[in-house]
């Protein structure tokens, strides 16, 4: 138990959990607000569908930084399990929070399930980026992808990269994408950790 508490404190997990809860509450309070998607359309989506997941993904990615690199480099079997538990706990806090506080449907079959799905997906992207480039820049991809979906919508040929973020609650394909992204991100992060642990690329 003492080791677990030390790990949680070193990763500032209590602080991160508190911030995620705060984000969720803010998302719930603004759940009725809509934002315009794309440049030349009148399509609107609930703001919480993108803004809450993007902020949660960025926060989870930043919290993946290891302040104890010596301990992380020991390579014992407990470390990957601890990293996975960290990723799962923080993602679950944000996703379940979004599912709990947001309405079932805000607009066009988009509501709590779609927001929770996007939380899972963008947290996975943040974790994967942390393992590849390091936690210092891992917050950028979740925000950038959500920003592209918000500003470009589905009007460009590259929209397939982010159009699933705009999908309604029951969209199976978007759910599969989210599951695959989180599984990849959590898996790579659990075994590899923050990129900075392995030193500069050669």
Describe this structure in words.
- The protein is mostly helical.
- It has helices at about 1-10, 15-30, 50-65, 70, 80-100, 110-135, 140-150, 170-190, and strands at about 35, 45.
- A hairpin with a 7-residue loop joins β1 and β2.
- α5 (about 80-100) packs antiparallel against α6.
- The chain is globular, with a radius of gyration of 17 Å.
- The mean pLDDT is about 80.
Secondary-structure map:
Blueprint: H1 2-10, H2 13-29, E1 34-36, E2 44-46, H3 51-63, H4 69-72, H5 78-101, H6 112-133, H7 140-152, H8 172-192
Antiparallel strand pairs: 1-2
Helix pairs in contact: 2-3, 2-5, 3-5, 3-6, 3-7, 5-6, 5-8, 6-7, 6-8
Descriptive tags:
mainly alpha, 8 helices, 3% strand, globular
Quick gist of this model?
The protein has 202 residues and is mostly helical.
Order of strands across the widest beta sheet?
A: 1-2
Strand share of the residues? under 5%
Mean pLDDT metric: 80
Tell how many strands the DSSP assignment holds: 2
Q: Which H/E pattern describes the elements?
A: HHEEHHHHHH
Total helical segments: 8
Identify low-pLDDT runs. Answer: none
Largest sheet: 2 strands, antiparallel
Which structural category fits the helices and strands? mainly alpha
Question: What is the CA–CA distance across the termini?
Answer: 39 Å
Can you give the helix content as a percent range? 55-70%
What radius of gyration results from the CA coordinates?
Answer: 17 Å
Shape: globular
């Amino acid at each position: 138990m003492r080791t677990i508490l030390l790990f949680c404190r070193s990763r500032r997990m209590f602080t991160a959990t508190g911030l995620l809860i705060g984000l969720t509450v803010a998302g719930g309070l603004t759940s009725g607000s809509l934002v315009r998607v794309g440049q030349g359309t009148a399509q609107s989506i609930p703001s919480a569908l993108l803004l809450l997941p993007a902020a949660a993904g960025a926060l989870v990615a930043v919290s993946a930084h290891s302040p104890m690199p010596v301990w992380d480099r020991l390579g014992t079997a407990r470390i990957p399990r601890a990293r996975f538990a960290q990723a799962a706990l923080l993602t679950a806090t944000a996703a379940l929070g979004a599912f709990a506080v947001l309405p079932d449907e805000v607009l066009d079959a988009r509501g709590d399930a779609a927001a929770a799905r996007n939380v899972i997906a963008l947290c996975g992207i943040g974790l994967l980026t942390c393992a590849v480039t390091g936690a210092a820049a891992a917050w950028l991809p979740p925000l950038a992808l959500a920003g592209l979906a918000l500003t470009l919508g589905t009007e460009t040929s590259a929209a397939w990269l982010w159009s699933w973020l705009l999908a309604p609650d029951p969209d199976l394909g978007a759910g599969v994408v989210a599951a695959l992204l989180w599984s990849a991100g959590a898996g790579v992060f659990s075994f590899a950790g923050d990129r900075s642990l392995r030193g500069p690329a050669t």
